Amino acid sequence: MSTHKATFASGCFWGVEANFQKTPGVISTLVGYTGGKVKNPTYQMVCSDKTGHAEVVQIAFDPDVISYEALVRTFFDLHDPTLLDRQGPNVGKQYRSAIFYHDEKQKTIAEKIKEELNSSGKYRYPIVTEIAPALEFYEAEEYHQKYYAKHNFR
Is 47 considered catalytic here? Predict the structure, then answer.
């Protein structure tokens, strides 16, 4: 079995992770931080909105079971990609909508789907989702991992 990686930001990483964990073909998930300018950020640092990091879910998936395209479509369905630097009650750049691609093929797929959705009329406002190269990933503190499962949410 080959394993590929996908990294998404769409608000607080707890709920995003819980949703992707239920997706067939997703082998594992890790929550953490990427897209910023500080080495080894902590949750408190990221929440200050001064590091530039986003709360992300990094997914290991089996491309023979689920395609990257299907994961990107799931990502867009999990949140409102037209909100800039916020989701629900969470506000700040760390809660931005972003796809962090791991290769040019992922970048092309993400851009194609974003454009398709923007043209479809599905959303009242333009999609603000950032599409950027995956930078160094910093694993979040243990108490954030599988948070919903640990606390019997959903």
Answer: no
